Amino acid sequence: MRTIVITGGTGGIGLYTAIGLAKTGARILVTGRDATRGQAAVARIQQESGHDAVELVTGDLSTKAGVAALADALLEATDRIDVLVNNAGMMAQERIVNDDGLELDFAVNVVAPYELTQRLRPALAAGSPSRVLVVTGGKASGPFDSSDLQSERSFVPLVNYTMTKRAAEAMSLAIADELAADGIFLTIVYPGRASTAMTQAMTPSSLPWFMRPAWPVFRILIPKSDGGKSAEKAARSSVFAATTDTLEGKGGLYVDTNQQIADLHPTVHDATNQSRVMAVLR
Question: Which H or E element spans position 41?
Answer without folding.
Answer: helix 35-49
